[in-house]
Amino acid sequence: MKNRLKNILEVVIFIFPALILLLIFVIIPAIKTLSLAFLNAEGQFVGLQNFSDVLLSSDILNLSRFPTKSPPWGAIIHNAIWILIHLPSVVALGMILAVILRDAWGGNVIKSIIFLGMITPMVVGGGIVSFIFDEHSGIFNGILRALGQDQWVRSWMVYPDTALLALIIGSILLWTGFSLILYSSGLATIPEEWYEAAEVDGANSLQKFFYITVPSLKPVTITVVSMSLLWELKVFDMVYTATGGGPGGSSTVLALRMYSLAFRALDPNKSAVIATLMTVLTLAIGIWLARSTNRMQE
Amino acid sequence: MKSKKFSWKKVIINLVAWTAGLIWIIPFMGILMASIRPQRELLHGWWNFEEVNISFENFGEAWNHPTAPIGEGLKNSLIVTVPATILPIIIATLAAYGLMRLRFPGRRIMLVGIVLLLSIPQQMVAVPLFQTLLNFKIINTYQGLIITHTAWGIIWITIFMRNYLTTLPPEVEEAASLDGANRFQIFTKIILPLSLPGLASVAALQFTWVWNDFFMALITLYDPSKLVATQRIPLLKGQYSVDWGILSAASLLVTAIPLLIFILLQKYYVKGLIGWTSK
Hints:
CATH class of chain A: Mainly Alpha
Order of helices and strands of chain A: HHHHHHHHHHHHHH
CATH superfamily of the largest domain in chain B: MetI-like
CATH architecture of the largest domain in chain B: Orthogonal Bundle
Number of strands of chain B: 0
Helix content of chain B: over 70%
Oligomer: heterodimer
C-alpha cells in the first residue's frame, strides 16, 4: 500500500506538470480546431462543407490562373512551388557545400557565415530578403544592372509575377545553413578508409562523391528532407514581413491564410480547415521520419 | 588534400568555397551597411563607397521609434524568453526521467503521443488557444505567452531529454537507490548534474526559438506597449516606403541576442541541433 502511494506520488511529481500543460495548451486546442473544421458558424455539423468551400476558394487553389497566367495561384500551389524549388536546392547546396567546405581553407568560418541565416529570426529574414530585391538599394538589382539586364530591375516584392520567386530564393539563402550543418556532421562519420579503398580502385572525385558520400549520408538526407518539408509547409514569418502575402495574394501561403481567416476575417471554421489540412501533411511527414529513422537503427 | 603541393583541384575548391562565403555574407553586409550609413547613400546601393559617412543614428531611432520602439521590444522579449526557457526545461526533464524510469498505465501512449505532437503545426492550436488564454484571463499578458511557449517547448524537450538520459550509465542510479535515496533525490542529485551538457543544448535552442518566435506572440500579445521585439520588425518595415536604415538597425538589435547565444554556446547549440533532428 505504501509502495503504491509512493508510486502515485512519483507519477504526480514527474509526469503531471507536463501532461496537464500539454492537455490544456496543445492537445485540447488541437482537438477543438479539428472539430471547428466540421462545424458552421452556428456550431452545427456540416460535414465536409467547409473543406469544399476552402478548396474551391481562389485564395487557396486558383486553377483558373494556374498554370497559364501569372500568380496568384492560391496558397496550396504557392506552398507546393516553394517545396519544389526550395527542397532540392537546400539538399543539394547543403551536401555539396559540406563536402567543399570540409576541404577548403577557412571552411569553418564560411560555415558560420552560412549558418547566420538560421540564427536570424525569420521575421528579420523577411526584411533582409525585401532589402536584397529592392529596386534602388537592393544588391540583386545592382548586380542585374552591372550585367546589363536592366529589363529585370525592379522591386521584386511588389510585382505579382516575381514576389513568390524572390521569397523562395531568399528562403534558400536563409535555410541552407541548416542542411549544411547536418551534412557536415554526417560527413565526419564516414570512415576515411572507404575513400582510400576507392582511390586504390582508381575512382575519381565525382565517383567517390556519388558512390560513397551520397549513399552514406542517406540518414542525414532523410532528416534534412523531412525538416525542410515541415518548414516549407509552415512558412509564415518571412512572408508576413516581406509581402504580407501580396501583392493581390500572389505570394500568400497556407499559414498566412489560416492566420488571416482566423484573426482578420474572423472565420474560425474555414481557418480550422486550413490548419487541419496542414496538420495532416505535417503528421504524415513526421510519421515517415520516425519510421525511416527506426528502420535505420535496426 | 593535406599535402602542400599545388593542385588545380585545391584551387577550384577554395574558389567555390569563398564565392559561396561571399554570396552568403552579402545580405548581412547589406544590413550592416544600411544600419550605419545615411539613407541618401543607400539610394545608389550600399556597395557604393564613393562617399561614406558612418553614424549610429539609426540605432537610436530604432531604439526609440515612435510607433514601435525596439528597445522596449527587446525588454519584453527578455521578460518572456527567460522564463519560457527555464520552465519547460524543468517540467520536460522531470517528464523525460519519469517516462524512462516510472511504470504507470498509459506510459507508452503518452510517449507515442508526444512524438506525434512534434509534427503538429502551431496553426492547429491558434484559435482555441486564444479562447483558452481569454478564459484564464491571461490573453495579452506575458504570462499567457510564457505558458504557451512552455507547453510547446515541453514537447520537443521531453523527447530530446529522454533520448539524452538513455545514454547515461544506469549503474550510478542503482548505487544511489541502494543507499536509500528516493527518486526525487536521485533526480536532483545525480540525473541533473549528469545532464548538464544536454541541458545546455536544450537551453540554447529553446531560448533562440522563443526569442525568434513570431506566430505565437502575434496571437497572444496585441497591446502596442507589450509587443515583443520580433513583432515590431514588420511594424517598422511598413507597407510602401521603407526606411532601410532604421529597419536594418532594428534587425541587428533583434538578431544580436540569438547570435550571442550561438557564439557563447556554439558547441552545445550545434550538438543539440544535430542530436535533436537525427539522434
